[in-house]
Design brief:
alpha+beta; six-stranded mixed β-sheet; eight-stranded mixed β-sheet
Length: about 1300
């Protein structure tokens, strides 16, 4: 954003505005004609947790006089904090209209974009890295991208694009050979493998980057010393120019907080409604950034960012001997994983300390390291220790209201002193810790006698907790096993957690308390061995696992037929049509549409009760707020208010927290949300209130499918039974639900711009809600920022409510959900509870299987019927032929938001039950699980449980290719050998087959239409009924049209999906979007070519432009193509039919390593072989496989929904809900497509791969359970255990039971007082 500062200065109207508001400003109140509209910077979470809004801020360092470039998230950056700074957005980096930057070019051409909503943030993180390090290391690349989330790609192609800039970059073409891989090409065919050609990229030239604005340079040469004050509507921002002025202001406004990075205060103001009338910004105070080095320690200014602190500590570590840098190294370890690069760039050391969050990663280390805080006020200076009393907020050890923290002194460590830091979080990077710790021990010189000991924990109380009493009791003791046992018992007594403690996971946290100390014990033993000779060290210490270093995965393997004509784009890795626009921020999403005349904003009012009667609603205060126009209630709906069981707007009663009651319409979004705070709703609680499957209030639907029922006792088999729990999953599409409804001036017509997978459903719902004909409503979908099933049904609800507002007010209505509201309202994947009984032989052959599944449908059935009946039950058998089967299912009603469609639609949950049965049988038989899988897989042409015939040849090929490509059997032996040598860390490996049924179980859902126009200049416009969700459907459709019309793709264009162009469309879902719409496009093109045949025959050597002059001969150059759909039917009474058009086969092998002491795991390698037949676009298809796999991996390992006992969703943002990050990608990630496979049913013998890869993520889950089973076996614990997904660190740690978990269960929890009879959270 070149010269952005001058513009920003002109529109500083509200001190409380953030940078993201300014960038998206569509017209300022003072100057409605002035537009900024830099919409490339996306707004997604509002908490700085997803990175979609990343930009680069540049400032001149007053000390070094160098220009510093750093990435920040605009949703947290107060606009007033940018005085003197230059802001560069993605638009300033490069554009399609001017010149692409190499970062933008490479991420697009490396196929690193799908939906594209996160891409501008990715580009800006990489761009900032390159401005600082033109040839970065791979570690720096990972660090730079650690704060950017992507829900589509699986990250691998994004990393591949970044690796092209790295100083040392591993092979970018083909498959990286492992030691035991052999010649993989021989088994996978003679196709060319190429991801991209690095030589084709334009080089990076640092001399051509934007310069720092000269006017800002002049400002830094003569810095403004006067105090700057910015007045907002409710907040005043004061920025003093001198240290003296700051102290005077703090004395005058002692309650005013100091704000630098806004990473703590900002989220609190947003989520908790905290409002501070005065904010003091010390950003211009150079004294707060002073760093001084002495012989005994290091003093760091409180204003230094955490990123600067990291650099300062790294420099000091390189200068000093190791014995003096123990504390610095411990701090560095946590700074690498603390939050994200963007947050570390913004957050200050002083702010981190003063915030005193219970989960602080640095305070426990600073406390044990005897850090001192240097405080200053008008009265003078003083020093206080960063002690347990300060961290607890005791007045005697705290700052006085008029004092500020000037700097922090961290002393050197000394010889015979050891400091370590520990943390465990839901995932490795960018996640708040469940528990962290700082530990320090000082020995009497030349001995292992404890002279001083300090242990501090975070995450186990309201503040950082010091185990001072335990440490004092251990002074003078030897560092040995007796001391260890006593220390653990004392720590559990002193660091106590009640069962209702905030954050839950009490047993897990207590286990980590002693597990961390044991890790510290082992680390110190290893250090003592270096200093005291001879010094006995137990074997467990020698095999101790240190910290993991994540590595970049190599590139994936792409297949292109070497014999294909160059002019034919089908089957080639064509770049996503919008790839370059994604990378430049020019791709327009729903909320990027400019403000229209008289537009109003809408915000939703939702229930705060799980099951209650609405007694009264008081709107009086809300309607008095300036700018509030109206409130939309159920009484304003002229037509149908949803269905009897599922209302658009609640009437009389609410069934869950988050149910929509009414909507507020105002001139601005801020005014609408402020009005919501003033609305008073009185409820009367109803009973019973039910949240879990096991005690569901009313059973919903039930169904069963039976192959044959023969009692196990007649089969003379062994019998086992068990349970499987699969948690729900949030869609977490990067673009939240949003809609813009524009009423026209006549005939009650409406234009609706909506982010949806099913515009026809939105159209129909709005029609019935407003009681107007469907033909008056046009829905437009340009592109969708991710859907995954969550934008099939829900957008119709928001579209209908917004349409009621537009009809009532006569104004256009824009409704954009915040991330918190989106997650609270919309529901997600159905949680599942499964029970199984399986009869089997000693050789692993399963003779009988009985599975009963219960899914949590939420407060209404919604898609539960379809998910249960037509998908989950029919797909349970997966790849196995079992003669005696009974599958039963039931949808349960609870008082949670209604769950809905999600990628895979029941298959990922249900099939996990089946695979768990296989694993349980293998354990009982003493066989490897893969042997039992092979024993029971389909082998010859056969029929499924519902009597649909199929040929499993491709299934077997995928299985065998995966075993071969992954060197599975050799690696199985290596895993077993590793586990014999390591007690506290274990590896696991698993290979999973898959038979995924594609499509809807109904013919009518497989029809599609397309409209193709040929214009007289030879250009062609293609329109079809599919929606671009990031899966590349528009790209594939143009590839189809290009082949059929035999013209270059450059002649073709797709504008949008519109119900006015192609009516009565089917939802883009069930993996058939490209299949059926491709058939329709093919049909339309063939019709047009048929019409052009006479012209072409007359002039066979003519050009395309000459042929299309057929218009002058009265030949229509417009055609509608239609595909009647695959035949699919199911007789539900008989349990027989052909419900699915075809199957996608695949197999995945994953290897992991777990830390038995913390439950953490790392993904070592994944190999996937997928049967894509003849891929329309292998780059896009492999991207779909990778993205689905990573999303599935999240379902099975990290993504956990947490509800309060009152039914309030706790996990409503990226802070609490952890989707996989870039560090979760397997260190080696190989994907290949099975060649020479055919399916004549589909377009060019291709297959839909949008969903199938999801379940393959379970290979990571089963690799983890394999490692857990190895740990349990070594500890003589039963190898069979209740399977629970996700396999979080908590589940893994507690499953690896040992003496530390036993200590936790032996030491009782504090008794719960009567006022706290319930746990902190319900985990779904």
């Amino acid at each position: 954003m070149k010269n952005s500062h001058s513009y920003l200065a002109a529109i500083l109207l509200r001190a409380e505005w953030g940078l993201s508001v300014i960038l998206h400003l569509k017209g300022s109140p003072s100057s409605p004609g002035t537009l900024m509209r830099l919409t490339g910077t996306k707004y997604a979470c509002g908490r700085g947790g997803c990175g979609a809004c990343t930009v680069m801020v540049s400032k001149r360092d007053p000390t070094s006089q160098e220009i510093r470039h750093f990435s920040v998230t605009t949703c947290l950056v107060p606009i007033c904090s940018l005085y003197g700074a230059a802001v560069t957005t993605v638009e300033g980096v490069g554009s399609m209209k001017t010149r692409l930057h190499p970062v933008q070019e490479r991420i697009a051409k490396s196929h690193g974009t799908q939906c594209g909503f996160c891409t501008p943030g990715m580009v800006m993180s990489m761009y900032t890295l390159l401005r600082n390090h033109p040839q970065p290391s791979e570690e720096q690349l990972l660090e730079a991208l650690g704060g950017n989330l992507c829900r589509c790609t699986g990250y691998r192609p994004i990393l591949a694009s970044g690796k092209t800039f790295c100083l040392v970059s591993r092979g970018l073409r083909g498959h990286p050979q492992s030691k035991n891989d052999g010649d993989r090409r021989s088994s996978l065919g003679t196709q060319e493998s190429q991801l991209f050609v690095k030589e084709e990229f334009q080089p990076l030239d640092p001399t051509q980057e934007l310069i720092f604005p000269p006017e800002l340079l002049r400002m830094t040469e003569n810095p403004e010393k006067r105090t700057l004050t910015f007045h907002g509507e409710r907040v005043t921002w004061i920025s003093p120019g001198t240290f003296k002025d700051l102290l005077e202001l703090k004395a005058k406004h002692p309650e005013a907080p100091l704000i630098l990075g806004n990473t703590s205060l900002g989220p609190a103001m947003r989520s908790k409604g905290c409002l501070h009338p005065i904010l003091l910004s010390p950003a211009r105070i150079s004294e707060l950034n002073v760093v001084s080095k002495t012989n005994d320690g290091l003093t760091i200014g409180a204003g230094c960012s955490l990123a600067q602190v990291k650099d300062i500590l790294a420099e000091r570590v390189s200068e000093l001997p190791e014995e003096k840098t123990q504390t610095y190294r411990a701090l560095l370890k946590h700074l690498k994983s603390l939050a994200s690069q963007q947050i570390r760039n913004m957050a200050s050391l002083g702010g981190h300390i003063i915030s005193r969050h219970s989960y602080s990663d640095l305070n426990p280390i600073l406390a044990v390291g005897n850090a001192t805080l240097n405080l200053t006020s008008e009265e003078g200076t003083r020093r206080i220790p960063l002690s347990e009393h300060f961290l607890a907020g005791l007045a005697s050890a705290d700052l006085k209201p008029e004092e500020i923290l000037e700097s922090v002194y961290i002393p050197h460590s000394q010889k015979w002193e050891f400091v370590s830091a520990f943390r465990q979080a839901q995932c490795q990077q960018n996640a708040l810790p469940d528990v962290n710790a700082g530990m320090r021990v000082l020995f009497k010189e030349g001995t292992d006698i404890i002279e001083d000991l300090s242990i501090t924990y975070g995450g186990v109380g309201a503040a950082t907790v010091s185990a001072h009493k335990s440490c004092q009791q251990l002074l003078g003791r030897q560092w040995d096993e007796l001391m260890l046992d006593e220390a653990c018992r004392r720590l559990l007594d002193e660091v106590s957690l009640p069962g209702w403690a905030p954050g839950g996971r009490v047993e897990f946290k207590r286990t980590l308390v002693v597990s961390f100390f044991f890790k510290f014990y082992l680390q110190v033993l290893q250090e003592l061995k270096k200093l005291i000779k001879p010094f006995p060290v137990p074997v467990s210490a020698l095999a101790f696992m240190g910290s993991w270093q994540h590595k970049l995965p190599p590139s994936s393997l792409l297949f292109v037929d070497s014999h294909q004509p160059l002019q034919d784009p089908v089957g080639r890795p064509v770049m996503h049509l919008s790839g370059l626009k994604h990378a430049t921020g020019e791709a327009e999403f729903c909320d990027d549409i400019p403000m229209v005349d008289k537009e109003l904003c809408m915000a939703l009012v939702t229930s705060t009760r799980a099951y209650a009667k609405i007694i009264s609603i008081d709107l009086s205060e809300a309607l008095e707020i300036p700018g509030v126009v109206d409130v939309i209630t159920a009484k304003d709906i002229p037509g149908t208010n949803g269905t009897e069981d599922d209302k658009l707007l609640a009437v009389d009663e609410v069934l869950c927290v988050g149910q929509i009651i009414f909507a507020v319409v105002a001139e601005t979004d801020v005014q609408a949300k402020r009005a919501i705070e003033k609305i008073k709703i009185t409820y009367e609680e109803l009973e019973p209130i039910i949240f879990t499957i096991k005690v569901s209030r009313v059973p919903g639907l039930s169904y069963k499918v039976v192959e044959s029922e023969v009692p196990c006792k007649l089969l003379n088999v062994r019998l086992i039974q068990g349970e499987v729990h699969v948690g729900g999953q949030e869609h977490f599409y990067m673009e939240t639900q949003r809609v813009l409804v524009i009423p026209k001036t006549e005939d009650k017509e409406l234009d609706i711009y909506v982010s949806t997978q099913d515009p026809a459903h939105v159209q129909k719902t709005v029609s019935s809600t407003l009681n107007i004909p469907i033909n008056r409503i046009t829905c437009h979908v340009k592109r969708v920022g991710g859907g995954f099933g969550g934008k099939i049904g829900r957008p119709a609800v928001f579209g209908a409510i917004a349409a009621v507002g537009a009809l009532k007010t006569g104004h256009p209505i824009r409704l954009v959900l915040d991330r918190e509201d989106d997650m609270l309202i919309t529901g997600g994947r159905h949680p599942l509870f499964g029970k199984y009984k399986v009869g089997f032989m000693n050789n692993g052959r399963i003779k009988a299987l009985d599975i009963e599944c219960f899914i949590n449908g939420g407060c209404t059935l919604d898609d539960s019927e379809l998910s249960l009946w037509k998908f989950l039950i029919l797909k349970l058998e997966n790849a196995y032929k079992i003669r005696n089967l009974r599958f039963r299912g039931r949808a349960c009603l609870t008082n949670l938001p209604s769950n809905t469609a999600f990628r895979g639609f029941g298959f990922p949950q249900g099939t996990l039950v089946t695979e768990s049965c296989i694993t349980a049988v293998a354990a009982k038989c003493g066989l490897p699980p893969e042997k039992v899988r092979e024993k029971n897989m389909y082998r010859t042409v056969d029929k499924t449980i519902y009597k649909q015939a199929f040929n499993p040849e491709s299934l077997i090929r995928c299985w065998n290719e995966c075993l071969d490509a992954s060197s599975f059997h050799n690696r199985r032996k290596q895993v077993e050998e590793f586990n014999k040598k390591n007690y506290w860390k274990k590896r696991g490996i698993a290979v999973i087959p898959m038979k995924f049924s594609v499509g809807f179980a109904a013919t009518s859902y497989h029809q599609a239409a397309a409209l193709v126009h040929i214009y007289t200049d030879g250009s062609v416009l293609v329109t079809h009924g599919g929606n671009e969700l990031g899966q590349g459907i528009h790209t594939k459709m143009l590839q189809v049209a290009s082949r059929e019309l035999k013209i270059p793709m450059s002649h073709l264009h797709i504008c949008e999906t519109s119900t006015a162009m192609v009516p009565n469309t089917i939802a883009t879902a069930a993996s058939v979007g490209a299949d059926i719409n491709g058939k329709a496009v093919q049909n339309a093109c063939q019709i047009l070519l048929k019409r052009l045949e006479p012209i072409i025959k007359k002039n066979p050597e003519g050009t395309w432009e000459e042929w299309v002059t057929a218009f002058e001969q009265r030949i229509s150059l417009s055609a509608t193509g239609y595909f009647r759909g695959y035949k699919a039917f199911m007789d539900w009474e008989k349990g027989e039919g052909d419900p699915f058009p075809y199957y996608v086969y695949g197999a995945a092998c994953s290897e992991v390593e777990i830390d038995c002491l913390t439950g953490a795991h790392k993904k070592i390698r994944t190999d996937i072989v997928m049967d894509a037949c003849c891929s329309l676009n292998p780059a896009i298809d492999i991207g779909q496989i990778e993205g689905a796999f990573i999303q599935g991996m999240g379902l099975y390992t990290t993504e956990e929904l947490k509800y309060s006992p009152e039914g309030v969703l706790y996990s409503r943002g990226p802070d609490e809900y952890k989707i996989p990050t870039i560090s979760d990608v397997p260190e080696e990630f190989n994907v290949s497509l099975l060649p020479s496979s055919q399916t004549p049913l589909t377009i060019y013998s291709s297959k839909g791969l949008g969903e199938s890869g999801m379940f393959l993520g379970s290979s990571v889950f089963f690799a983890i359970t394999d490692a857990v089973a190895a740990a349990r076996k070594e500890r003589d614990i039963a190898e069979d255990f209740t399977v629970k997904s996700p396999a979080t660190p908590e589940w893994v740690r507690m499953a690896c039971a040992d003496r530390f978990t036993e200590m936790v269960y032996i030491c009782p929890l504090p008794l719960e007082p009567p006022s706290h009879p319930t746990p902190w959270a319900i985990f779904k």
